[in-house]
Specification:
Blueprint (H helix, E strand, L loop, with lengths): L2 E9 L3 H12 L4 E4 L15 E2 L11 H8 E12 L6 E13 L1 H14 L3 E3 L3 E8 L2 E9 L2 E12 L6 H5 L16 E10 L9 E6 L4 E7 L4 E9 L7 H10 L8 E11 L8 E2 L2 E3 L15 H21 L4 H29 L4 H10 L2 H10 L6 H10 L4 H22 L8 H19 L6
Parallel strand pairs: 1-2, 1-9, 2-6, 4-11, 9-16
Antiparallel strand pairs: 3-5, 4-5, 7-8, 8-9, 10-13, 10-14, 11-12, 12-13, 15-16
């Protein structure tokens, strides 16, 4: 069997994988990126396309080129919540404009940038197994055009997406790597790219509408006439016929009359807290493969970019020091958890709370809550209101006070949880103690909500 050796093997050519590979190549190390799709399809990934802006990306790539090529709408001023019960529309202004991208072109640009920086790009290459020496990952086995090759590496970076096959094949029993992963912690999503005849009235907004199960429909305008329309639902709920539900809603919206569907794609994504530990000896997981996704909105592009970059930086330092142990890669865990990881973990508590109520009641509460409080809760895992707003909200939410009190209790636990994540240990030695502190908060949330244990 042919064997090739590299400093780093990156599996998967999405956001996390390309940023990881580009970072390693930019540092002068040998890195190969293994992508299962052909080059003509690489970068074509199901996504909502909404993003904050180029400032969220590490500067290892040409961010101006990325913006010029892939950012198609940079004037997103509002989140627009549509209440199907009352037909009310709640417009929540953003502090600064957001953007919507052409996800395919975005993905192509990242791959181009990785190639430009010297990454060895291998398309049509399907990883089938992980190679280990004891508990240390030493490479992968992959097949291309019927030929199987062993890829040796000091570090393997797993950017293979949700429920990565690498994690199914590797033995992490003697490591801290988080294997407490189940399909119920994931969301199934589907989206279509649709061309409409006339400009939509919400070209400056990202539009959300709740679905019958815990999830939401979205309409994100790439341009005033090109709309990313999609929906998702939690896999711990009864299954939803995603295509049929989207088709039904599209038929009820006048702007989609005579519209043309130009692309269709589905995916699964994690709607859970980030992995407690995403490293093992010689191995790091990034992006969807480590649940680096906002568990309320499904947004994962900024977190994936950061995680890929940080994991690569940890790998570079470990390789240069001649030590790729779990401890040597641990700083990557700490950077994730004390940055977006703490926010996503806090938001996960709100997901647990929401899963214990009907969509009708949640919709009524969302409509009554002040917009900025919603943005804060969904974006940071915390929210605040003035006394006047609190009194006004009490009146508007009459009949839901018991529910709101449980939400308040969960909010207090979310603040405590963020503090625990800010104190994420700086080595594996204190990992068990940290997990115990974190789990105490989850147990309190289960008691408050009556929810079944998610983990």
């Amino acid at each position: 069997m042919p064997t090739e050796s590299f400093d780093v093997v990156v599996v998967g050519g999405g956001t996390a994988g390309t940023f990881a590979a580009a970072t390693v190549a930019d540092a002068g190390l040998d890195v190969v990126l293994l992508e299962r799709k052909p080059e003509s399809e690489a970068g074509h990934i199901a996504c909502g396309d909404a993003i904050k802006g180029k400032s969220t990306f590490p500067d290892v790539i040409d961010r101006d080129y990325l913006k010029e090529e892939a950012f198609t709408n940079e004037n997103i001023q509002y989140a627009r919540f549509e209440n199907p019960q009352t037909d009310e529309v709640l417009e929540i202004p953003f502090d600064e404009p957001g953007a919507v991208v052409d996800r395919r072109r975005y993905g192509e640009v990242l791959l181009e940038e990785a190639d430009r920086l010297g990454v060895d790009m291998r398309y049509d290459t399907v990883v089938q197994d992980v190679r280990q020496d004891g508990d240390q990952v030493i490479g992968v086995t992959a097949t291309k055009n019927g030929t199987t090759t062993e890829y040796d590496a000091s570090v393997v970076i797993d950017a293979a997406g949700a429920m990565s096959i690498l994690q199914d094949q590797a033995d992490f029993s003697e490591t801290t790597f988080d294997t407490n992963v189940h399909y119920r912690q994931f969301c199934s999503a589907y989206r279509e790219i649709i061309e409409v005849e006339e400009p939509v009235e919400y070209e400056d907004s990202i539009v959300f509408m709740p679905t019958e199960e815990l999830g939401y429909l979205w309409y994100f305008p790439r341009t005033e006439t090109t709309i990313n329309a999609g929906l998702g639902f939690q896999m711990n709920k009864p299954p939803m016929q995603l295509v049929d539900v989207l088709k039904q809603d599209l038929s009820n919206r006048s702007e989609f009359e005579n519209a043309e569907v130009i692309d269709k794609l589905g995916a699964a994504l994690p709607t859970r807290r980030p992995y407690d530990s995403a490293v093992a000896p010689g191995y790091a997981a990034v992006g969807d493969a480590a649940a680096h996704v906002n568990p309320a909105t499904g947004g994962g592009i900024p977190g994936a970019a950061k995680a890929g970059h940080w994991a690569a930086e940890a790998a570079i330092e470990a390789i240069e020091d001649g030590d790729v142990s779990e401890s040597a890669l641990w700083e990557y865990n700490q950077r994730v958890m004390t940055d977006f990881g703490k926010r996503f973990a806090a938001i996960d508590l709100y997901n647990i709370w929401a899963g214990t109520y009907s969509v009708e009641e949640l919709t009524s509460i969302v409509t009554a809550l002040p917009g900025q409080a919603l943005i804060d809760a969904l974006g940071t895992g915390a929210a605040g209101m003035s006394l006047g707003l609190k009194l006004e909200t009490l009146g508007r939410t009459f009949g839901h006070w018991r529910t709101l009190y449980s939400l308040y209790q969960v909010h207090q636990q979310a603040k405590s949880l963020k503090a625990v994540y800010e104190d994420y240990p700086d080595s594996p030695a204190d990992f068990d103690r940290w997990q115990s502190r974190r789990d105490e908060i989850y147990d309190r949330v289960y008691d408050i909500t009556g929810a079944d244990s998610k983990y």
